[in-house]
Backbone:
């Protein structure tokens, strides 16, 4: 297609989308809300678990005898790492597709609801096993720890449900494409489809692990499991999982924030290119979680390290594009000098402030991530509480605080209420409390980790070891930071209840930015899922075939299951 | 508004420096950890 036609189609879309779809259809809104409510129940309960953990680890609090630390930690990881994220994402994406591509058909919506119920039934099943202490295997369910088979089946259902939800979203996007042949696709809808594609390819790994290995083994149909294979399949999925969490936050950063601050999306093409790069770089890098695992050829660990480092490219593209959106807008408002534009941003608007804090947290989070992924440096931090500090900056702030900030306007948009001035101020308080609490907790985790303190462990003096006494003051600091975070979670819960059921009726905007007038048109290749899909699969096959072949070929007898709790 | 004024306002210098800042954070954290690593192993 010629540049000229592309350009004109791009501008017609922006206007036609603006005219036609301002509000998410009521029926789609219900589907999105159902997911979002589950997500925030998970945040509240998971937050309680988090508070218990930091208190226990400070050394001055004992859990009642009927609960054990690792059960609490499983609740925390599953509810926050798996449930909050997956359910919020499926709700947000359903709303985002409906808003950007148009209302679902009845059939698509029915598939979406089927997805919601399958996931929810799975969630209830898994939760029942955790609560009855049949599954204290943490959210990564590493073999040879063995949970009740219902736990694995429940988690598998959560994933199958999310496939159905994503299918509905992809169908709606494809329908838009058919109806608008040759036009540039709506950015938000496009991003949702990239994320669903990523999710589908990634979850195949964990689906194989659960269905082929863990369920037969926990049912007693086979006695032993190939531990290394199961972990490799897990991390084939597990690293992409973190990008599945992150991309919806990026959708909000790229698409929503420009509108909120009154600016424009810096470039549609750049945003789409960075998403396609995340797509191909998310899966073939899982070995960076298994650096210390014997039985994997160091060469392949090294190759996947290099692939991991490429993710710096789309990450810095994203940082650049967001800074540019801010700077252009700040200058439009009269900001002078190199950083004068910074002061002009809408600091009192929680729709901006919360995701902004999230972005700031993501900078050190990304930096510590590069340390984790540096093959040799991983030795310094592996399985220490540093890692926990890292992902509380990335997922628990960069991602979660963006979701939380979005929920405060998205819920009222969906149920026809308003985010009031006071609620907005309370939301800003949440942002500030989160920033303070997380700086203290995560900072202390990083330092303690460098001093050797392990993650995934209850309080212990390790037989009065001198090294372990060095950690205690940092554990107390974590308890202080964690308590501040818990207060933030209480306010969040109150605010969510308020905007869901009590806020005044009205209209709250679902902000969707427009692309800056001067930016170049999007080359069609960037929207070609076949091309990028083929590249993605090719890189995965390259990165994983030989390591997995080796693992299976040299596999030992395998391990029986252990229940150590 | 004069042309001159526009060109001095309409630039992305801040963006460039901010992105360099992100790169700098990455480098500082990495070098610090690398130094610890070399000291210990
Ligand atoms: C009140 C707020 C929070 C507190 C006090 C808190 C505290 C903690 C602590 C102390 C640990 C490590 C315990 C250990 O390794 O022994 C932990 C682990 C974890 N946290 Fe949080 N956290 C909070 C919020 C969050 C949020 C919002 C998320 C995600 C969105 C999250 C995700 C996780 C995950 C995935 C783990 C790993 C669990 C595992 O190792 O199996 N946390 N948290
Ligand atoms: Cu990873």
Residues:
């Amino acid at each position: 297609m010629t540049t000229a036609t592309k350009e004109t189609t791009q501008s017609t879309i922006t206007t036609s989308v603006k005219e036609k779809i301002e509000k998410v259809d009521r029926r789609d809104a219900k589907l999105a809300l159902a997911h979002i409510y589950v997500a925030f129940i998970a945040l509240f309960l998971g937050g309680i678990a988090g508070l218990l953990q930091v208190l226990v680890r400070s050394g001055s609090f004992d859990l009642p005898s009927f609960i054990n630390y690792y059960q609490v930690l499983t609740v925390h990881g599953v509810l926050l790492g798996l449930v909050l994220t997956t359910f919020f994402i499926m709700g947000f994406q359903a709303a985002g597709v409906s808003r950007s591509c148009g209302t679902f058909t009845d059939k698509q919506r029915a598939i979406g609801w089927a997805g919601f119920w399958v996931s929810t039934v799975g969630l209830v099943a898994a939760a029942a096993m955790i609560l009855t202490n049949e599954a204290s295997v943490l959210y990564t369910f590493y073999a040879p720890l063995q949970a009740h088979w219902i736990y694995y089946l429940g988690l598998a259902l959560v994933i199958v449900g999310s496939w159905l939800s994503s299918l509905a979203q992809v169908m709606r996007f494809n329908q838009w494409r058919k109806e608008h042949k040759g036009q540039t696709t709506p950015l938000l809808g496009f991003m949702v489809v990239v994320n669903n594609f990523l999710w589908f390819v990634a979850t195949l790994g964990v689906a194989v692990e659960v269905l082929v290995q863990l369920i037969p083994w926990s049912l007693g149909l086979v006695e032993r499991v190939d531990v290394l294979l199961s972990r490799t399949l897990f991390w084939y999925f597990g690293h992409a999982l973190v990008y599945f969490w992150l991309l919806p936050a990026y959708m909000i950063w790229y698409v929503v924030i420009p509108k909120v601050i009154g600016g424009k999306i810096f470039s549609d093409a750049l945003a789409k290119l960075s998403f396609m790069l995340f797509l191909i770089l998310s899966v073939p890098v899982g070995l960076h979680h298994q650096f210390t695992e014997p039985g994997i050829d160091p060469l392949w660990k090294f190759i996947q390290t290099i692939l991991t480092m490429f993710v710096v490219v789309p990450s810095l593209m994203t940082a650049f594009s967001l800074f540019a959106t801010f700077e252009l807008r700040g200058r439009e408002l009269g900001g002078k000098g190199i950083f004068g534009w910074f002061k002009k941003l809408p600091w009192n608007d929680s729709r901006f402030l919360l995701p902004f804090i999230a972005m700031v947290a993501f900078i050190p989070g990304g930096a510590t991530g590069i340390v984790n992924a540096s093959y040799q440096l991983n030795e310094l931090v592996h399985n220490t509480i540093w890692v926990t500090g890292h992902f509380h900056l990335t997922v628990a702030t960069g991602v979660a605080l963006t979701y939380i900030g979005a929920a405060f306007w998205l819920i009222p948009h969906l149920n026809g209420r308003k985010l009031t001035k006071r609620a907005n101020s309370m939301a800003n308080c949440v942002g500030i409390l989160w920033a303070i609490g997380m700086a203290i907790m995560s900072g202390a985790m990083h330092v303690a980790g460098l001093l050797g303190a392990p993650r995934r462990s209850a309080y212990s003096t390790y037989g009065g070891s001198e090294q372990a006494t060095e950690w205690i003051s940092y554990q107390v600091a974590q308890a202080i930071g964690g308590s501040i975070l818990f207060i933030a979670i209480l306010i969040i819960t109150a605010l969510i209840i308020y905007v869901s059921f009590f806020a005044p009726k009205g209209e709250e905007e679902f902000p969707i930015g427009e692309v800056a007038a001067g930016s170049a048109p999007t080359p069609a290749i960037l929207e070609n899922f076949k091309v990028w899909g083929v590249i993605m699969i090719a890189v995965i096959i390259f990165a994983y075939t030989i390591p997995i072949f080796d693992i299976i070929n040299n596999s030992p007898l395998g391990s029986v299951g252990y229940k150590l709790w | 508004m004069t042309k001159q004024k526009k060109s001095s306002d309409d630039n992305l210098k801040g963006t460039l420096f901010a992105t360099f800042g992100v790169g700098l954070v990455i480098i500082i954290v990495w070098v610090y950890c690398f130094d610890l690593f070399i000291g210990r192993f």
